[in-house]
Write a structure and sequence with these properties.
Elements: E1 2-4, E2 10-18, E3 21-29, H1 32-42, H2 47-54, H3 66-85
Antiparallel strand pairs: 1-2, 2-3
Helix pairs in contact: 2-3
């Protein structure tokens, strides 16, 4: 799934989830070392845990950040998955 980021240096984040676990994460643009670090830390973790850890992180007073945008993307994923199961 691709989440288009807003108000961050990275343009988007591509990710995959299998059985509730983040299996792939790649930021498009942004600070390469930081986004690679975030991606490495979230792979293998449950979606809900990643959302809890990354939600609300602020970068430079923007009210969001690359990690926060990833959390928003995961929340969208959960919403879509929930609506498909209903």
């Amino acid at each position: 799934m691709r989440h288009i980021n807003q108000h961050t240096c990275s343009k988007a984040v591509d990710f995959e989830v299998e059985n509730g676990i983040v299996t792939q994460c790649e930021f498009i643009g942004g600070c390469s070392g930081n986004t690679q670090g975030v991606a490495a830390l979230v792979v293998g973790r449950p979606v809900e845990e990643v959302i809890q850890i990354l939600s609300g992180i602020d970068c430079g007073g923007r009210g969001t950040s690359c990690p926060d945008q990833f959390a928003k993307g995961l929340q969208e994923y959960l919403s879509k998955k929930s609506s498909m199961e209903a």
